[in-house]
Design brief:
Shape: globular
Distance between the termini: 44 Å
Radius of gyration: 21 Å
Number of helices: 12
Oligomer: single chain
Number of strands: 21
Strand content: 25-35%
Structural class: alpha/beta
Bound molecules: flavin-adenine dinucleotide
């Protein structure tokens, strides 16, 4: 039976954002085809820390961040690396990034982020249930730990932003922390538990489960690379792929960090940059955590996953083409040993796995969600930076509302693709 307003919609990119968007579009009765040259969930959605943190409202560029940068860059174990040869290409993004960190702008960005993060797990739940993947999503909170009260005080502004956006937490001292996470080093003197947060125990398997359910329910998944769009008189006719065109009424661009040239073809020059990050996994770790734990000083997260303990983090500004620097992943192992002293100092290679991924980041820490400049038929859904897993469900639902002719529940104005003009 034909459904009124039913469209054929191509979703470009089968990461967490593309798969959730495609699933919400299918639920609204559209004919949906998901395009990706690889298998679902093998991009950035593969190896992240898996956190669904409603509390992640704090933008990367905060007032005063510029003062911390030299210290981070000088520390070989530090959370930030910048490859000097890439600096000329990066400079325009970096300038926008620094300019985004004023108190007013940061308050606006945090409010906007919260609209995508709040109720993220509840919004994802029907898709997870439909995929039979409930075992992959847990809601045991997220623990932030500090090695000194001074470092906790330094993050006051960030916690104020969270409080302003309705996020609540419980505070723990050193002894209480020990009861909460017995394996944690006694070096940590302060802990903050945000109970509304959750995590997936396997991001890759979660995206795959959602993609399989999408296919089972009538969605199509095709291994094709989108290379452009056929637009006639302002209306989309087809998505051009490497191996021919595919006729569609509408499209969603959800190709993560690879979205930039496709958006440029539609007249939107967005300053999308990769913030490269790494993970190292320890299989059968001697000890693990019960709750995902973020080390506020080291800026990394330890997440208990079904395949082991995953340490994820660091920001490397080096572009898309540079080869991974696996030394960055190994540094996370040293941090892990400091966090959980009962871990070993080193492991045989067959107990470790390493990964590098590209966070798709805009300088103001907000994604791009909205219609393209050249045609209203293409809606963008990319640029979720550090919070793509957590924002995926609300993003997907929002895009499905837009393409179904409804006014979205989330105000998309702050995410406008044209905000950089
Ligand atoms: C170390 C690290 C830790 C992180 N931890 C967290 C966390 O705990 N919580 C959180 O919320 N976020 C986290 N993130 C961020 C999160 O992983 C990303 O924001 C999210 O995965 C982005 O999803 P995506 O679907 O936009 O992109 P991707 O997962 O990269 O998917 C994009 C897809 O597009 C496909 N594609 C590319 N070009 C084309 C084309 N031309 N045609 C068709 N398809 C194409 C790619 O093959 C890929 O499959 C972390 C990131 C890193 C690196």
């Amino acid at each position: 039976m034909a459904i009124a307003g039913r469209k054929t919609i191509g979703v470009i990119g089968a990461g967490m954002i593309g798969v959730t968007t495609a699933s919400f579009l299918l639920r609204r009765g559209h004919d949906v085809v998901l395009l990706d040259p690889g298998n679902p969930g093998e991009g950035t959605s593969f190896g992240n820390a898996g956190c669904f943190n409603g509390s992640s409202v704090v933008p990367m560029s905060m007032p005063g961040i510029i003062r911390s940068v030299p210290k981070w860059l000088a520390d070989p174990l530090g959370p930030l690396v910048l490859r000097l040869g890439y600096l000329p290409s990066l400079a325009p993004w970096l300038i926008r990034f620094i300019r985004a960190g004023t108190p007013d702008k940061v308050r606006h960005q945090a409010r906007a982020l919260r609209t995508l993060l709040d109720q993220g797990i509840e919004t994802l739940a029907p898709l997870v249930q439909n995929a039979g993947a409930q075992d992959l999503v847990q809601r045991v909170g997220h623990l932030f730990v500090y090695r000194s009260l001074t470092s906790w005080q330094k993050e006051r502004a960030a916690w104020n932003l969270r409080a302003d956006n309705g996020i609540t937490w419980d505070e723990f001292d050193v002894d209480e922390l020990r009861q909460l996470e017995p394996n944690l080093s006694r070096e940590y003197v302060k802990g903050i538990l945000v109970r509304e947060n959750g995590h997936t125990t396997n991001p890759h398997r979660l995206v795959n489960s959602l993609a399989s359910a999408f296919q089972r329910d009538g969605g199509r998944v095709e291994r094709r690379r989108a290379v452009g769009f056929n637009v006639v008189d302002g209306r989309l006719k087809a998505i051009r792929c490497g191996d021919g065109a595919i006729a569609v009424d509408a499209a969603v661009l959800a190709a993560g960090v690879w979205s930039k040239p496709l958006a440029a073809e539609l007249g939107d020059c967005v300053p999308l940059e990769t913030e490269r990050g790494y993970h190292i996994m320890i299989r059968d770790p001697e000890v693990t955590s019960r709750i995902p734990v973020a080390d506020a000083d080291g800026k990394f997260v330890a997440t208990p996953m079904e395949l082991g303990l995953r340490l994820a983090g660091t920001v490397e500004l080096a572009g898309l083409a540079a080869p991974p620097n696996w030394g960055r992943a190994r540094i996370l192992l040293r941090h892990a040993k400091r966090m959980f002293p009962a871990l070993r100092s080193d492991y045989p290679e067959d107990r470790l796995s390493m990964w590098m991924g590209h966070r798709p980041s805009l300088p103001d820490s907000l994604p791009v969600i909205g219609r393209s400049h050249r045609t209203p038929d293409v809606v963008y859904a990319f640029g979720h930076g550090h919070v793509g897993m957590a924002c995926a469900a609300k993003t997907g639902k929002t895009v499905a509302e837009i393409l179904s002719g409804q006014s979205p529940q989330v105000d998309v104005e702050p995410f406008s693709p044209q905000r950089f003009e």
